[in-house]
ferroxidase
Amino acid sequence: MAAASSSSKLLKRISTSLNSIQHSFFSSSSSSSSISRIPIQQLKFPHPPCSSSRVSSRDFCSPTSNFDQGPAAVDYSALLQEDEFHKLADATIHDLLEKVEEYGDSVDIDGFDIDYGNQVLTVKFGSLGTYVLNKQTPNRQIWMSSPVSGPSRFDWDRDSEAWIYRRTKAKLLETLETEVQQLCGEPITLSKRAN
């Protein structure tokens, strides 16, 4: 509360100073020209002054940056209920478990191993690398660590009915198909495509 009070006092002092400067400027020029005094509230600023009663140092009327800081943080949990998230994520991970297990049996990869426990799917392709996929319930996401593309976080997209990495628009299953074929040299079919 003390911080809000001191911020309020600081804003009042700044406003008083600006009014004083404005008054001095226009009263000294009014003798030589017909410029009338303009209230500070009517002045046009390139960025509007802060209107919040609680002002912090980062809110202090600084212009917004034009730098690309990636996608804006969105609370996707509001879009996907927890029970629906578990149903979709579990179905995806269990389907992956079965298909990758079949794939591992059909190709000769030294050190191939697949494990699912504590909601984490781990697929080891021996010396070629390891994939780790797990559910992130608070974020309503599936996170993947890939030996090819690194870490990524997939959100459920209702329109395409697929897990999508929002930064690149890549789909989880298609990404895995491409990367596993690149690693192992043999194609794998994980997604359902309408051809």
The radius of gyration is 29 Å. The chain has a mean pLDDT of 76. The chain has three helices and seven strands.
